[in-house]
Amino acid sequence: MSISLAGPDCCGGLGNIDFREADLCVMTRLLGYVDPLDPYFVAAVLTIAFNPLFWNVVARWEQKTRKLSGAFGSPYLACYALGGAILFLNMLRSHCFTQAMLSQPRMESLDNPTAYWAGLALLAAGSVLVLSSFFALGFTGTFLGDYFGILKEARVTTFPFNILDNPMYWGSTANYLGWAIMPFTAEIYRRKSFQFHKRS
């Protein structure tokens, strides 16, 4: 019995696609809005990648060794310390992200009230998901207390966990997407106001 995976019927498989014929003008245009060598952009990418790696490695190390709990004399104190480190890293990530957004080229198509309100709506929805997740889980539930042996009575199934499996991640994603739209618009209107006052 052999199992084979069939490629797309339309072109006889991916081996028959000539990528030299692909129209990359859309991608080229989009890459015109990103300066990957900008130090703020590099810092933002590094903090975005490092933060979850750090807290997951530390939490799993704690779960296997209980070294942090031993060093702090209590799993609660160790969890609070890791939570504090995570909060600090998140503030650093947010700062780096903001600086990267302000230093990158501007997408003029976002210079309109619709983009502003869409960004604001994403920020509002993301904030509701993040904050309601935090209130449902508490500090130790939010900051990996289960890896420290700090467990809730039962799995949380109240809002927002009754509509999404990972509402804090979805909320953070919505926040950063909204934030990515907002600085463009905010910066454009700030410049417009500056030019108006300069003429006056």
Key structural traits:
mainly alpha; 200 residues; 66% helix; 6 helices
Note the topology.
Blueprint (H helix, E strand, L loop, with lengths): L24 H7 L7 H27 L1 H6 L2 H29 L9 H30 L24 H33 L1
Helix pairs in contact: 2-4, 4-6, 5-6
Structure description:
- The protein has helices spanning 25-31, 39-65, 67-72, 75-103, 113-142, 167-199.
- It is built from 6 helices and no strands.
- It is globular, with a radius of gyration of 23 Å.
- The model has no long low-confidence stretch (mean pLDDT 87).
- The protein is mostly helical and 200 residues long.
- The longest helix has 33 residues, at 167-199.
- α4 (75-103) packs parallel to α6 (167-199) and α5 crosses α6.
Helix/strand class = mainly alpha
Q: Can you write the helix and strand succession as a string?
A: HHHHHH
The overall strand count is: 0
Beta strand %: under 5%
C-alpha-based Rg, rounded = 23 Å
Let me know the average pLDDT. Answer: 87
What is this structure, in a nutshell?
This protein has helices spanning 25-31, 39-65, 67-72, 75-103, 113-142, 167-199.
